[in-house]
Amino acid sequence: MAGPRTPRPRTSSRLRRATAVLGLSAAVVAGAPAAMAEPRTDVTPPVVTADQVMPHLGALQRIADRDGGNRAHATQGYRDSVAYVKAALDKAGFRTSLHRFTHNGATGYSLIADWPGGDPEHIVFAGAHLDSVETGPGINDNGSGSAALLATALEVSKSGLKPNSHLRFAWWGAEEPGMVGSSAYVRELPAAERDRIDVYLNVDMAGTKNNRPWLVVQDDPAAAEAFNAYFAARNLRTVKIGIGGSDHVSFGDAGIPVGGFATGLDDCTHQACDRVENVDPVTETTSTNAFISTVWRLAVRP
Ligand code: ZN
What we know:
The protein has helices at about 15-30, 35, 55-65, 75-90, 140-160, 180-190, 190-195, 220-235, 250-255, 280-300; strands at about 95-105, 105-115, 120-130, 165-170, 195-205, 215, 240, 260. With about 300 residues, it is α/β, with parallel strands linked by helices.
C-alpha cells in the first residue's frame, strides 16, 4: 500500500546541531537564561486524565448537534470544529494557519499548528483527521483522535516544552472522502520541506469500546518501538499493522517515515450513533497518554 521510499540524506545533521549550539550561545549573550534556552533531553512526559480529554469530545458533539448532526467537509459543523480547535491552540501559544484546498467544488481546510522553537531541519509532525462523514457526528471517528492530538498539543504548551525537534500538529479536512486534506498538504510541500519531516505520527479512532487491541503502525522504527513499548508496559494488547487506511498514507506515499495507531472500527462507525457515548473514556485517555509519551520521546530526544 505504501509508495516507493526515497533515501533521506542525514549527513548534515552534525553541522545543523553545531549551528543550533551557536544559536543557543547567541541567546545566552542576549540575556536569556541558559536553562530556558537549552533543549531538554531528560523530560518525563506528562500524564493526562479523562477530564483533560473528554471535554473536547463533548464540545465536538455539541457542534454536531447544533449544526445538523455532522461535521463533514464543507459543512458548518466542520468549520465550527476547526474554530474550536484553533481557538484552544491560539490561546496556548501555537502558530496556527489554515491550509486551503478544494474538494467537490467546495473549499476545505486543514488546520496546521506549529509550536515555536526546535530545530526546523528536524520536524516531528503529528496529525489526525477532524472531519466526519455526513451521516453522523464522527466522535470516535475521528473526534477521538482529534481530541487526543489537541490534548497532546496543550500539554506541550502547559509544560513549556523545549524540544530538540520542531513540533508541528495538523487536523486534516476532507479525509473521509479519501485523504483529500492531507494529500493536498503533502503535495504542495516543497521537496526540501518534506525532507525536514523526520516522522509523521497519526491517530485515527482512539476510544473504541470493548477492549479492542491497539493497531500500531510499524514503519518508522523509533515511533513503532515507542508505541509498542508503551502498550506492552501496561499489558495492553496490540496488533502490528502496515501503512494504510488513514491519513498517514499521504505521508508514507511521499517517502516520509510514519507511525501512529488506531483502536479499530466500532458498531457505530460512519453512523449517527457515533456519538460521545460511543467513546470509552479509559481507552481514549490511554490513547492520549500513549500519544503524549511518544511525541515526547521523539521530539525531546536529540
Ligand atoms: Zn477516521
